[in-house]
Specification:
Blueprint: E1 23-25, E2 28-29, E3 36-37, E4 44-45, H1 52-58, E5 69-70, H2 81-84, E6 90-93, H3 108-117, E7 122-127, E8 148-153, H4 157-167, E9 174-179, E10 197-201, H5 218-231, E11 234-239, H6 242-248
Parallel strand pairs: 1-6, 6-7, 7-8, 8-9, 9-10, 10-11
Antiparallel strand pairs: 2-5, 3-4
């Protein structure tokens, strides 16, 4: 496996505390939970149950999280952020909404234009709605823009089967899966030949109140690390999560400090 350089957050424009990116660009704010029925329990579940977007909307940002609204397009507005980042950066695209949410249809073409104007950046687009991707790609997409990574979230095995299988059929220079929050053991081995990157992490949250956290096991994280290693796919362990912070009595909030993890899980790689 080729060595991969660690990410360096950009100091130009907005930075991010998300370890696997350098800046966060929001084309809109607001979203809606995606629900699926768990094949084993039969219960309706959502990886979005304790979504940080909704928490932040009710807390520090104060906006209606159930209404998808385009961010400011005024001069210097948030919508044009990548144009103000002169140094190359990895840009997590839309952390406060889903880039492929239908309510973004009226202005997504403007976002694609910004991406085309910024070939020096790498845009990391993550969605829980992969069924919407194919019909919402730009006409000149071809085999994928060189500066766009397409990814899906999958914290359950059944959502992995549903979403990753769709992603694998979409042309892209880099395809990735974010198994965060990881809510059960997930096997991605059938899809590894089509993937370039896997992010994995336990859920962050609080012990009380509305925005809590669900358990994660070291074995689940370790399994995905090993699957990536066997397939020579880059892996990024973002955090162990609040549950394991408590179980292992770690100091870093949400167990984000790799120095406190088992050696085998200290893996933070980007695609070659």
């Amino acid at each position: 496996m080729k060595k991969r350089k660690p990410n360096k957050p950009t100091n130009m424009g907005k930075s991010s505390n998300i370890s696997w990116t350098g800046a966060t660009w929001n084309i809109a704010r607001g979203c809606h939970k995606v629900f699926d029925r768990h094949p084993v329990t039969g219960l309706k579940v959502s990886e979005c149950e304790f979504c940080y977007m909704k928490r932040d909307a009710e807390g520090i940002f104060k906006f209606n999280h159930e209404q998808v609204r385009q961010t400011s397009t005024k001069s210097g507005g948030a919508f044009w952020l990548p144009l103000r980042l002169t140094e190359p950066a990895k840009v997590f695209t839309s952390s406060l909404t889903d880039f492929f949410h239908p309510h973004c249809d009226s202005f997504r073409h403007q976002a694609w234009q910004v991406i085309r104007q910024c070939p020096h950046h790498t845009f990391q687009i993550l969605t829980k709605r992969p069924q919407n991707i194919a019909g919402r790609l730009p006409d000149d997409w071809g085999n994928g823009y060189p500066n766009v990574w397409l990814g899906v979230s999958a914290g359950y095995q059944h959502t992995a089967h549903k979403r990753v299988s769709i992603l694998c059929d979409i042309p892209a220079k880099v395809r990735f899966v974010s198994a965060e929050p990881l809510l059960e053991e997930v096997d991605l081995s059938d899809y590894m030949p089509h993937l370039h990157w896997v992010i994995v992490g336990g859920e962050s949250g609080n012990k009380t109140g509305k925005y809590r956290y669900r358990p994660c096991h070291l074995e689940w994280i370790g399994s995905l690390v090993e699957q990536c290693r066997a397939a020579d796919v880059a892996c990024w362990v973002k955090q162990l999560g609040t549950d394991l912070q408590d179980v292992l009595q770690l100091k870093a909030r949400h167990a984000t400090n790799p120095e406190e993890w088992p050696q085998s899980l200290r893996v933070q790689q980007f695609p070659a």
